[in-house]
Amino acid sequence: MGQLKANRADEAVKELKDFGFKAEEIKGLNQTIKKTDKKHVHVIIVKKQNNPLKEEYDRSFYVQIYNKRGFANLKNHVKSMPISKLVVLHDPSLEKDDEKVETLTAFQEQQVNARVDAHLKQKESEDRKDLKAQLRQEILDEMNVEGAGSGNSLGDFDAAAATLPQLQKFAKDNNVDLGDSKELEAVRAAVIKWSKK
User: For the chain, first and last CA: distance in Å?
Assistant: First the structure.
């Protein structure tokens, strides 16, 4: 079981000194509390009784632990009890609450995971579309850089995406010299070269 210092220990010692207790009397006060009792109020109950033989007061104190309700009752009835002073040694209301972490049920965890997966798939699809459009535009820009202002134009024809038969038909319709080219990339290169002349 761990121990920790009471959160009002220093103030409590000062109050006891102000009430007339000497340092050696206060030395016996345990200023630590059990961790398991940190949510309870620790109160120093001070008793002061007249001692006619010594012509002074006998003073004593002891520590008592209360829950909130018990401490409220004590404060309400202290005048009817033989208690001279109440000194709070540890006040749980001054403690920082432990961070409350809300837990999810297994079903709720499945819902979270499903939403994450759906979000990632949607983002991946959007990224793929954006990348495809960007690369398509780069290819079109490469094709049109040198051919700007030339008499040859591809118009709406997309040479980068066209198949071999489409490229061959375009070349035939526009009198593009393919030479001996019969492979897709060679025909595509010839059409693009023609568009840049």
Answer: 88
Which of helix, strand or coil describes residue 36? helix
Q: How many domains does the chain have?
A: 2
Residue 7 and residue 84 in one domain? yes
Could you tell me if residue 77 is inside a domain?
yes
Tens-of-pLDDT digits for all 197 residues of the chain? 688 888 898 999 999 888 888 888 888 888 888 888 889 999 999 888 887 787 777 888 889 999 989 988 888 888 888 888 889 999 988 877 554 556 778 888 889 889 999 999 998 888 888 888 888 887 777 766 544 444 566 777 888 888 889 888 988 888 888 888 888 888 888 888 888 77
Q: CA 114, CA 196: separation in Å to the nearest integer? A: 51
Distance CA 91, CA 75 (A): 14
Domain that holds residue 79: 3-94
Is beta strand 56-66 parallel, antiparallel or unpaired with respect to 41-51? antiparallel
Domain boundary among 78, 94, 110: 94
Whether the Cβ atoms of residue 140 and residue 193 lie closer than 8 Å to each other: no
- Distance in angstroms (rounded) separating the CA atoms of residues 31 and 63: 10
In whole angstroms, what is the distance from residue 121 CA to residue 130 CA?
14
